[in-house]
Design brief:
Elements (H helix, E strand, L loop, with lengths): L1 E6 L12 E2 L2 H4 E2 L3 H12 L4 E5 L8 H11 L3 E5 L5 H14 L5 E4 L1 H5 L1 H5 L7 E3 L4 H13 L9 E4 L5 E3 L26 E2 L7 E4 L2 E2 L16 E2 L2 H13 L4 E4 L8 H13 L6 E6 L6 H9 L2 E9 L3 H6 L6 H13 L3 E8 L7 H14 L3 E6 L7 H8 L7 H7 L16 H16 L2 H10 L3 H17 L2 E2 L12
Parallel strand pairs: 1-4, 1-5, 5-6, 6-7, 11-14, 14-15, 15-16, 16-17, 17-18
Antiparallel strand pairs: 2-19, 3-10, 7-8, 8-9, 12-13
Length: 489
């Protein structure tokens, strides 16, 4: 069978702000790792031909996707669905139906994990929904669909039977041994076009070395709390595969790379032992799982940058969001990174329920500036479905209990994502978000430091583009995204 896998365009993506925000591509353009894993598993079966279309990288709309389907004529179309871009998913599926009305459309991805029932009900645009980690289940689904067998034992599958009843799998797809999966099929994409806005400007290989997160932060959605890690040997082998294709800059895209110091140290030792220290890499992690010894090894192994999730600026606030760190731990970890010449980026969230006054957020900005990481990202807190913050908001009457469910049933363009606006309005928080970026980035000292630290013209150009975006000459503008296209129902 010919299988076309694609992500959803983000032309009508939901945002928290009233108008300006960073666009996803302002942070960088990263490959759809989930689709790459899926494509690799399908290809490894030896029974199917698979193609990946990255609509974000190629700036495609629904009509562009339909043309791709019409030209390639796949037997199955699989789509990764995210709730913030659900409206675009609807547009894409309607256009695909026009040119290929008999081709099965399969939904997977984070949205279907939260809303499988609300997904399969849209019979005019989706035929099958697969919930969970789908490398094994989607491949089995394709084999069974081709052979004409029963689909009822496929993990995570939702579909309409001939009698119009809905079959619902009782368990989501799940992979315990991540080493059993083939390496992501990055060769099916134009991998040299992906980059990180905080990188060197060179092509970036994106690696997912673990899945799951055992922590219970009040604002976060993680489908599986069970933390599973690939072996060091398996991770190093994937790096070597990328390296053989000329890619030497890497970003570990895990929800939690450094679950503990021991793992962090082991990966660094594995890279050194393999003799591939001519690479550079970065990861997202915690401030409480690094120490002097592991940073010495990581620096030798090519570590260039760590993205730390800090989120709030007071110990009391960090306790309330169940972050399980302190500001002093943040300060010590940043100092250690500076000592070893490792760049840092800190992530911050404004608009938590306990941010009751403008002064609380001004203190957060001052703290971010005082801690002086090399980079920082700021966001307004989103009240995601089924998080602690969401439940608290429903109890206080800030959000209708069926808000997200109703959106899943009838999405609208450029959703204004629910935020905690009990104390400050969306407009006030949006204005404070811009203030965060301006106060952090437009300081003479750090600007001069970055200029002298740059390693290539590509890196310099990325910083110039970033500055223009923060000055208002780029980024996301709600007014430019709210007009529904001709494919709107």
């Amino acid at each position: 069978m010919k299988v076309l896998l694609l992500n959803t365009p983000d032309l009508h993506v939901g945002k928290t702000t009233s108008d300006w925000d960073l666009d996803a591509t302002d942070i960088g353009v990263f490959p759809p790792v989930g689709l790459m894993f899926l494509a690799a598993s399908v290809r490894a079966s030896g029974k199917h031909q698979v193609k990946i279309v990255d609509t974000i990288l190629n700036k495609m709309n629904a009509q562009d996707v339909a043309r791709e389907v019409e030209e390639w004529k796949p037997d199955v179309v699989g789509i990764t669905v995210y709730t913030p871009t659900l409206y675009d998913t609807f547009l894409v599926c309607r256009e695909v139906r026009k040119v290929a009305p008999q081709t099965p459309i399969v939904w997977g991805g984070p949205h279907t994990w939260e809303f499988p029932e609300e997904s399969i009900i849209h019979k005019e645009i989706v035929d099958y929904v697969i919930v969970g980690e789908a490398e094994e289940s989607f491949t089995k689904f394709l084999d069974t669909l081709e052979d004409g067998g029963s689909l009822d034992d496929i993990a995570g599958l939702f579909y309409r039977k001939p009698d119009k009843s809905i079959f619902r799998s009782q368990k989501a797809g799940y992979t315990q041994n991540l080493d059993s999966l083939p390496f992501p099929a990055f060769d099916l994409l134009d991998y040299n076009r992906y980059y990180s806005a905080m990188g060197t400007g060179a092509a970036v290989g994106t690696i997912c070395s673990s899945r799951g997160c055992p922590f219970k932060c009040t604002y976060c959605v993680v489908p599986f709390k069970t933390y599973r890690s690939r072996s060091v040997e398996n991770i190093v082998e994937e790096i070597q595969l990328y390296r053989s294709h000329g890619v030497k800059e890497f970003f570990f895209f895990d929800d939690l790379f450094n679950a503990n110091v021991r793992r962090f140290k082991a990966i660094s030792e594995g890279i050194i032992a393999a003799g591939i220290t001519d690479i550079t890499w970065a990861f997202r992690g915690r401030v409480d799982a690094i120490n002097d010894e592991c940073l010495v090894l990581a620096k030798k192994a090519g570590l260039r940058r760590i993205f730390f999730g800090v989120e709030d600026a007071t110990d009391e606030g960090l306790v309330k969001i169940k972050k399980r760190i302190t500001i002093e731990k943040v300060r010590r970890s940043l100092a250690l990174c500076r000592k070893h010449g490792i760049l840092t980026s800190t992530n911050w969230i404004i608009g938590f329920p306990h941010h009751e006054k403008r002064e609380d957020i001004l203190h957060l900005i001052d703290t971010a500036v005082d801690l002086n990481s090399d980079y920082a990202q700021f966001n307004i807190c989103i009240a995601y479905n089924d998080t602690d913050i969401w439940r608290q908001g429903v109890e206080k009457g800030l959000f209708p209990a069926d808000y997200w469910k109703n959106f899943a049933l009838d999405p609208t363009p450029s959703l204004q994502e629910p935020i905690w606006d009990e104390h400050m309005s969306r407009e006030e928080l949006s204005e404070l978000l811009r203030l965060c970026y301006n106060k952090f980035y437009f300081r003479p000292g750090p600007i001069i430091k970055k200029l002298f630290a740059m390693q290539s013209f590509g890196e310099f150009w990325l910083h110039v583009k970033g500055a223009f975006t923060l000055l208002g000459f780029g980024g996301y503008r709600r007014s430019e995204h709210e007009t529904p296209t001709t494919a709107q129902k």
